[in-house]
Amino acid sequence: MAILNHTLKNEINKISICINNIKQSLQLKELDIQDAVENADIVLDSVDYLSKLISRLRKQIEEITILEEEKDLFKIAETVISRVKPFINNESIKVSILFSPGNHYS
């Protein structure tokens, strides 16, 4: 995410600098057309880059749909404990389930 923020900030700063350069160039009595064109090209390149970046992001980001459903908390706890037990199987750590299977909600 930091890289994305950095990239966006760089492109926006580049556009801002070039627009300011074009504005200053337009205020001169002797307009530097070549400089204005070069700055406009940089702006167009940045806008094109940002458009492509946004298109790639859209393809990678899917809409997340949260589906509500009832689950057996006891089974979830058992599954989690069975998955972590191999990593914590030593004498200093003890894992226990403190509720009984008969008293769970389904």
Estimate the mean pLDDT confidence: 84
What integer value in Å does the Rg equal? Answer: 29 Å
Distance between termini? 39 Å
Number of discrete helical segments: 3
Secondary-structure element series: HHH
SS strand fraction: under 5%
Overall helicity: 55-70%
The poorly predicted ranges are none
Number of strands: 0
For the largest beta-sheet, the strand count, sense and barrel status come to: none
Number of domains: 2
Q: What gross morphology would you assign?
A: rod-shaped
Would you tell me the structural class of the helices and strands?
A: mainly alpha
Structure description:
There is one protein chain. Helix 1 (2-27) packs antiparallel against helix 2. The mean pLDDT is 84. The chain starts with a helix and ends in an 18-residue tail after the last helix. Helix content is 66%, strand content 0%. With 106 residues, it is an all-alpha fold. The chain has 2 domains: 2-60; 73-103, no CATH class. The protein contains 3 helices and no strands.
The gist of it:
This protein is mainly alpha-helical and 106 residues long. The protein contains 3 helices and no strands.
Q: Would you spell out the secondary-structure blueprint of this structure?
A:
Elements: H1 2-27, H2 33-60, H3 73-88
Helix pairs in contact: 1-2
